[in-house]
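Quick log. Single chain, no ligands specified.
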Amino acid sequence: MIRKRVAKPLVAAVSAAALCATMAVTMTSPAFVPVARADTYGDLVNAQNQKAASAQREAELKAQLAGVRSDLASKILELDDLTNNRIPAAQAAVEKANEAAAAAQSDAEAAAQRLEAARKDKSNLEEQIKKTGKDYDDAHAAVAQMARDSLHGSNASDVMSVVTGSKSTTEFVNAMQSRQALSRSESNAASSAAESLNTSMNRSERLSAIEQRIADLKTKADEASAAAQTSAASAQQERESLDQLRADGEKRRTELESLEDQLGDASAKQAAQTVVLQSQIDSLNRQYQQEQWQAAQNAGSQNQGQGTSKPPTNSGTTGGSTTTRPNTGGSTGGTTTTRPNTGGTGGQGTSNGDIGNRYVAGQCTWYAYNRRKEMGIGTPSWLGNGGDWWRNAPSYGLRVDHNPQVGAALSFLPGQDGADGVYGHVAVVEAVYSNGTFMISEMNWGGPYIMHSRVLTNAGQYWFVH
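-> predicted structure:
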């Protein structure tokens, strides 16, 4: 039976159908660059079993840390809890608070607009009153205007007989309503009846009704504004709490990294490295999101000349990871295959076909190219969909086999381990452990630029591109 331990997503997944896309093209026709795609994974741990999965992960960590000094084991467990439980929960709270604040702000703006419209109605009516007085009947005037308009119709003679035979405005109106104007006046009356402030009232009545409506709308607008301010303050508190948790995570990770050499047991080192990598990925997720937000703001400023808005909800305090992506591997004694520091180590990578990252930004292929470059490993620019890397790599001189090695790209076949049935997926090996398991990092978990890590086993079923 294949055993696979799946790490909990560090950022809330926004869509199980997010595509991990890249751009693929044959070298014989460089002018045509179709978009190739590779789907990433869905939310493997749903809301109903998250608690059970968290408990299982904690139990596994404790088993790996058996015999480790209690204070050091506690640090590892605390960082794991922060990264996989408390930070995601705080992130979800921030997103919920932001949605509530946005809804409250929208309600407040709508209430303010209704109030402004009522005030404008009052202003317009007051101008009309200045001209013709409070007792002017707009309904009768409207019917009279329709009668005048009807003089230009085919029944002009009938209308004229009504006009000339009428001794007063009232008689004229009543006579018009008995003829062709009847249907029009009824239609207008039905439409007006649907309005709270209709022209069937005289202007004095309408003015009083508008003033009452303004008073009601003012109360509602004030209440909506207060609710929006409360929601905004609540959202800010949630963001500050999330930032504090992440700052705590950064501090704990740095401290744990300095103590890793005190872990003599191979299993304990693997546990510590896994927890550290997951914490680093959380930092990278925030960095990627912040970079994309900033790029969007710059583009918006250039295109529209408008001010900036608030950063994304999963941004926050990024500590020392804002400018340099950390080396997430490192030496762990004899239990781990360590990351190469320079290109070409172990026969990995090639400059053949590498003309820069030509994959769609934020997708699994784009990330795999960048991550390998950070590790000193070259990658061809046109390997295609994530599930095609293993097939296309040999033509560029890359070694492809079933042996995991740090820095290798794991090319998931279509449908393999939940990868898309057509496009597949690709990830990068971060660590290889003595017990036969290995850790990968990947992008587009639940959405572009979102990173994730997992520990897998049974390497023989996977294709690795070196």
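Strands lie at 19-23, 35-39, 400-401, 409-412, 425-432, 438-443, 451-456, 463-465.
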